[in-house]
Specification:
Layout (H helix, E strand, L loop, with lengths): L8 E5 L4 H11 L3 E6 L20 H6 L3 E5 L5 H13 L2 E4 L5 H4 L4 H7 L4 E6 L14 H7 L20 H24 L4 E5 H8 L1 H10 L16 E5 L4 E5 L3 H10 L14 H6 L1 H12 L4 H10 L4 E3 L3 H4 L3 H5 L3 E3 L9 E3 L23 H7 L4 H9 L5
Parallel strand pairs: 1-2, 1-4, 2-3, 4-5, 5-6
Antiparallel strand pairs: 7-8, 8-9, 10-11
Helix pairs in contact: 1-7, 7-8
Length: 396
Amino acid sequence: MPHTLQGLTVIDLTQNVAGPYCTQLLGDFGATVLKIERPQTGDDSRSWAPRTRQDEATTFLALNRNKKSICVDLDHPMGQEIVRKLSSKADLFVHSMKPGSVESRGLGYERLSSENPRLIYCSMSAFGETGPLKNLPGYDPLIQAYTGIMSVTGYPDQPPARAGVSIIDMATGMWAFIGILAAILERGRSGQGSKVTASLLETGVAWTTLLVTNYMATGKVPEKAGSGSPLIAPYEAFQTADSWILIAAGNDRLFANLCQVLDTPALIQDPRFVTNKQRVINRDDLHRIIEARTKTDRSERWVQLMQKAGVPCSSINTIDKLCNDEQVDALAMIKPVPSFRLPDFKIVDVPVAVNGQRASLDLMPPELGKHTEEVLRWAGLSEQEIASLRKERAVS
């Protein structure tokens, strides 16, 4: 990846998933990211399961490359002063602490920006910085529940289910990253920093855009649709002779092509299915007819036939298949890092390329506190001052 953000220094006070994903993206694009962690324990995700054979937490490894780790006690006055000193020399300050928590430690936007007017300050929270819930903590599944995402996930006769990936956390990291990029451009014009805010709740609401719009238009509360969509049919999973496939015939032409593959040409002119509107109304009948055909052969065979006919479809893969997929390999999205301290470690790259290049891999996920002295020396502290900070246990 071109080092677009090279020369920018980031003070990173984030942990868990959303914040670290944002700051990892900044590092992937060339910024120097100084990750501030608690002494002894570090980022919460360092203690999460599952773990590698070398007893390192996979979540931390997935979200903290291209960073330097420095251990600072934010509850110690000398530790707070160290972070302010670092921020005075930095370009960006990113945190995911509860509203009020950073301010109580003298690390709020007003104070840091008064000392460094060019500082871009990014605050990430669960419920946002205003409103009755602003001080509450939150996690990805909590926000999926709060925003109604869980109410439309899964099948009607099943208990509530969350999406199986961290869609709220990682997307919040992306929105924060986008806001930071906009602030960098604005600083280039005005010379002044900005405050960027993002929250898990705002991300969750944004992901319901289509559902909210449909509800506003019809007054009908969206319900669970399993693997399907309330907007299009057929657009869902179908059982085959050996497993399942997903078919996404998103328009009349694709539906006609599907009918030819299934050897059911009469469906093209059937009044129940002649338009997408009619197919949605008669979704259950259509599903039964299509599935009666797909059950007659194996998934691999149907996928071959449908892809040849230009019908969007896929087998429903497990993660082990994804990791060994020819197309994923061709895109170099999952790649080994043979020189890393974990010999079998692989990274999932950023899903965007610039001139064919993806993330810069300058630093692998750091061991806790590995760069403390290096960063303190960068901030201008002498060896005597560093020793004093260690003695006071303000850093480690």
